Amino acid sequence: MNKILLACACCFIVPFYSLSQSTGFEGVLEYAIVFKYEPGFREKTVIGLKKLGSTDRQIRFFQADSLRIRTYIKQDSIWEESYLDDDKDIYKINFQAGFHAEIIDHHSGSRTMLSNLKEVEDFLENNTEDPNWRDKIKVSEWFNLDYSKLRKLGRRKEMIGGYLCQEYELPLSTPNSKPYYYWITEDLPSNESQQIPYFFNPIFTPKGVVLKCDMKAPSIQNQKTIRKITPGPIDPILPRLRSINFGTLDSVQYADQKLNQHLVGKDIEQAPILPNFSFYSVDSNQLESLYSRQNNGKFILIDFWATWCTPCLREMPQLAAFQAENAAILEVISLNQGDHRADQVRQVITQHNMIWTQGYAGKLLKAFLNPGKSIPHAILLDSNLKVRWRGNPAGSWDKLAEIIRGN
Which segments within 218-368 are labelled E, that is strand? Predict the structure, then answer.
């Protein structure tokens, strides 16, 4: 059973390799994967998962009969949303750009980042309890499918999704694995830069785009078939990573909790020098840090705000004027809390002329920097990152000016 668990888990791991900016397929591909189990296998699997302490969501995967996948493709990046059966809620999100992949659980907010093959192998090894898989299989082989072994099966072609497809067989090097069967069309534009090898769910091959795939393993069979093809220009995918609404959970654009884990249990009032912390910029998906500003000779004003906070927005003209007047000796970092709508956040920033560093604050960062949870809230640091002032900036601009000007 562990082998099948690992195999199915791999459906959600989508790292891919060095892609160029050359032109290939651009648009949206929507697939459906239908699961067929041998009698009793599903029931035994669910019982085993419960004994292992698996969550209801992990069990839900084996209770589903199908998986719907919507894949947005633009140049070297892919955004993939997965839905179980007819569920309206997203089950998983995979995002890839270059050799960077993220696996996101839309419900728990958990985020796994894989940026090299070693991390992929470690992830797989840590997600299986069967040592035989680690002993018998070099994991990296799973992500380097040898497409040179594609073998055409006969001359008969099949119409799938309005495109003419040829059937191929691809033998696998993994022990006791049956080959994949692909139905590939040459009618969709693709090139070598879009050959994205990953386990179970290939899209591009040197022969063309895969519109149907059959996979058989002990006790289970998967068939993946295209449902809809929408070629043509689409908006950049990266903003989707920041704009998707994760409800009350910290969204993926908020600093990963692991990065600020060292702040747990610490008190800002007892910190003579503020410890480093990380946050994501609103204008890009780049991770920034406090200590990258160290030794620049400037004071730093950290401003907590929210798009829905009227008092915060009321103070923005004063903050903008204060920042402009003291730009030579002051840097401002505004941290938005609670609003996951990147487009909406950017509109507010533009509307209020907030032309300074804008970031998102996650739960740990908020708990450490603003334990009182009230906003607007500001923290003034000197050039040595020592806290010089904290509180509501409304009515305190003259006091802040005295501190940074040494009066």
Answer: 220-231, 278-281, 287-289, 299-305, 330-336, 357-360
State the Cα–Cα distance between residues 352 and 122, nearest whole angstrom: 45
Measured torsion, CA atoms of residues 231, 85, 110, 78, in degrees rounded to the nearest 10: -10
Distances in whole angstroms, Cα of residue 281 to Cα of each of 49, 98, 357: 39, 20, 7
Task: Give dist(CA 1, CA 158) in Å, integer.
Answer: 35
CA distance 197 to 329: 51
Among candidate residues 298, 293, 357, the one with its CA nearest the CA of residue 329? 298
Q: Read off the amino acid at residue 127.
A: N
| Tens of pLDDT, residues 391-403 | 999 989 999 999 9
Contacts 24+ apart (CB under 8 A), 88-95: 91/57, 91/61, 91/67, 92/12, 93/244, 94/12, 94/13, 94/14, 95/237, 95/240, 95/241, 95/252
Distance CA 147, CA 78 (A): 21
Q: How far apart are CA 96 and CA 115, in angstroms?
A: 9
Residues comprising the chain, all counted: 407
Q: Report the C-alpha gap between 285 and 103 in whole angstroms.
A: 16
Which SS3 state, helix, strand or coil, does residue 99 take? coil
Distance between CA 129 and CA 248 in Å, rounded?
A: 33
Flag residues of the chain having pLDDT under 70. 1-23, 75-76, 97-145, 173-176, 191-202, 236-258, 284-286, 340-343, 407
| Cis preceding linkage at 171, omega within 30 | no
